[in-house]
Amino acid sequence: MDQLILNHISETRDKGEKAVLVTIVETRGSTPRKPGSKMLIFPNGRSIGTIGGGCGEAEVRRQALTALDENQSRLYTVKMLNEVAADEGMVCGGVMEVFIQII
Amino acid sequence: MMFDKLLSVMNEGGTVDFLTVIDSSSAELIGQMLIMYSDGRVDSLMDDDITEKITEKITENLRTTTWIKPITFSVEDEQGGTSRIFWDRIEKTFRAVVFGGGHISQPLVQLLSLLDFDVTIVDDRPEFANHARFPGAKRVICDSFRRVLQELTIGEDTAVIIVTRGHQYDLECLRATIGSGARYLGMIGSKKRIREMIHVFREAGVNEELLKQLRAPIGLDIKAETPTEIAVSIAAEVVSVFRGGSGRPLSGYAEVF
């Protein structure tokens, strides 16, 4: 895990604020980043780290902010196989499962 | 707080396994974490039953296989509920020691720090060994190579890169680090010069296996010419050794074409 992300988690909690930690937990096929990659997202949308960028990451970011509103950690699956993905240039052709963790 | 505990292990440069419940038939478990320290100690806020199940699973796994990458697995509790667990690990930070603060070292230290290496740079000349010259280095040591070599700890998390200004210094650094167990040991020099050095080491009775591990001439073959290109070639070789890569281009593999 990234030390920078851990430092920010610790700071966020010290201040009594919230954030969402997104971790890739499983991948199938070809994905830009592998299990264990992490990204921390703050309520204002600012983030640290990356789980691969592009449309996949943008989709996860929306899901993460929703999860934060509902205060509920959850699993989410990102597919980069469909036509939309191909149109948008998400050409890796894989599926990744991310865990969205409220901290 | 589990994340604070992970942070303190990380700051000490240690290794720790941490497990997160990512899905469960008991909703209150989702997001719960368990930490298993390298001495076997376990930190968990979950009940004893599930803590034990998870601990058993990883202990058994570690006994039969080596940890390669994060994985997920499932456990069943006494009530027949199931939970899916994500197993992740914080590993020791990779370290690099660069001997010689010359024109190759400058871009090299920058690259290595971008690659998240904790970099120590050593040179005996103050105008070469200073923080202004190496902003990316964790430590800049200005002292004789001989003295520094006596004090440095080098282990299997360390890359040793020998690029000093003179062959006598290169030789001194190599002599002191060849049996150190460094994960990567590379030394700069022409093929001819390296051949002579290997000969000297062989004569001195240095183990042939140790000599084979030496990366010299240093770097991958990218026909590097400028100091920065040479630094890229060295950094790429270091990454390939730490990650277990072949150093070959990814294109042209039979499985692709």
**Strand neighbour order, sheet with most strands of chain B:** 3-2-1-5-4
Number of strands of chain A: 5
User: What is the string of SSEs of chain A from the N terminus onward?
Assistant: HEEEHEHE
By CATH, the superfamily of the largest domain in chain B comes out as NAD(P)-binding Rossmann-like Domain
Instruction: Count the E strands of chain B.
Output: 10
Span of the ends, CA to CA of chain A: 15 Å
Number of spatially distinct domains of chain A? 1
Report the total helices of chain B.
8
- CATH class assignment of the largest domain in chain B: Alpha Beta
The amount of beta strand of chain B, in percent, is 15-25%
What is the fold named in CATH at topology level of the largest domain in chain B? Rossmann fold
Shape of chain B from CA axes?
elongated
Mind summarizing the main beta sheet of chain B? 5 strands, antiparallel
Can you tell me about this structure?
The complex is a heterodimer of chains A (103) and B (257). Chain A is α+β, with helices and mostly antiparallel strands. Chain A has one domain (3-102). Chain A contains three helices and five strands. Chain A has helices spanning 3-14, 54-70, 83-87, and strands spanning 20-28, 38-41, 47-49, 74-79, 95-102. The model of chain A has no long low-confidence stretch (mean pLDDT 87). By secondary structure, chain B is an alpha/beta fold. Chain B has two domains: 2-90, no CATH class; 95-243, NAD(P)-binding Rossmann-like Domain (Rossmann fold, 3-Layer(aba) Sandwich), CATH 3.40.50. Chain B has eight helices and ten strands. Chain B has helices at 2-11, 48-64, 105-114, 145-151, 167-177, 191-203, 208-213, 227-243; strands at residues 16-24, 33-37, 42-44, 71-76, 82-90, 95-99, 118-123, 139-142, 158-162, 184-187. A five-stranded antiparallel β-sheet of chain B has the order 3-2-1-5-4, with helices on both faces. In chain B, helix 3 runs parallel beside helix 8 (227-243) and helix 4 runs parallel beside helix 5. The model of chain B has no long low-confidence stretch (mean pLDDT 91). At the A-B interface, helix 1, strand 1 and strand 5 of A face helix 1, strand 1 and strand 5 of B.
